[in-house]
Each structure stands twice: as C-alpha cells, then as structure tokens.
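Entry 12.
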Amino acid sequence: MSRLLRRLVLVVVLLGGLLVAGNAVATHLADQVLARRAEQATGAARATVDLGGFPVLGHLLVQGEVPEVRATLEDVPVHGLTLEQVTVQLHDVRIGRRQLLEDHRLSIEAIGSADARAVVTQDELSAALGHPVELPGRGVAETDVLGVPVAVQVAVEDGDQLVLQTPVLPLLRVDLGIDPFLSACQLGLSVQVGQVVATCAMDPVPAGVVAALAS
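Predicted 3D structure (tokens):
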C-alpha cells in the first residue's frame, strides 16, 4: 500500500470515528432534553427517551426528521392512581431545523403517528381503592366483601376512563386522558396477571402529545 493511500485510509477512519462520536453525543443530549420535558409534562418519577435511526445527527441536520422516538416513563401519577409505566413510540418526528441550527434548541414541530401503552399493577389499583384487588389473569379481576370473593369488571368508558365496578357498586373511575401521552386516545384494555394494560394508536397525533415534547 502506497504512503498516499495509507494516509487516505487514515483520514477516512478518523472522519468516520468523529462522525460516530458526534452522533453519539448529539443523540445523548437530545435524549436527555426530551426526557426532562416528558418528566415535567407528566410528573413521572423517571423518564428515558431514545432517538432511533442512525445517524441521528444526519437526520436532524439534513432531513429535520427522526424516524423513531421511544419514550418510557415510570411511576406516572394520574388522579390518585400511579401508572407503573407509560411507553410511547413516536413515528416520523419532525424537528425544527431553524431552531436547531440558529438557536441551538431542540423543537418538535409535528409527529406523524404514535402508539402508547400504559401499565397499572394490582398493587397500585389496591392502593387507589384502599382495598385489595386481585388480577389472576384471563381477563379476570376480583375483590372480596366480608371474605366473599366478588367479581370486578375492569373496562374503559368514553375512550379514556378506566373504570372498576362490581355488579352492584362502582369502585373506581380514573381519567387516564389527563396524561398528555394518553390524551384523546381511544384506549383498548387487557387484564393480565397482576396488571392492567391499556393501549392505543394515534394517527393523527393529538396536540397534547406534541406539546409535551415540543420545547
């Protein structure tokens, strides 16, 4: 290999290393900024955000769009009930290139579509009710009255209202839509072992979701 060719290879390797390092730094900083915004918008105890689509820096600067953003929030308070986890997968996230280049500020302008998933455990349901609730799975929920097992219906009403009730007595109603990542959602519900899982798909994405991460 000639000396010139060796130098060219070295330059390419160095530039590639700088690109990878720059991309990692930019991604880490953007993840942290969006995680802080998510915590502030929801009151979550912790939030992590992951930008997908390598190289993220290239997507931000050239296209002004990131193909995937995943936000995971833990211990999210909603009207006296704590959601163990809320996960949101955002697709086709458009970033304000002008704000990024001129003001060095990460601003989300639009989100193409999104999928959300919220988990509440039987322990949190029991704490909210002040009475034990059992979730043995297979769509079944139970409590007891004077030592007698009583079936509990777990359902969603009006799109985003989590409702627990016995055949004769309402037990709990929580507006999950107060969380910006679940706002304007038509939630589907699954009663699993030890937890209730609510899911929804958003297309278009409600303004509340965009605003929670916007700036």
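Annotation: The CA atoms of residues 115 and 201 lie 4 Å apart. The mean pLDDT is 81.
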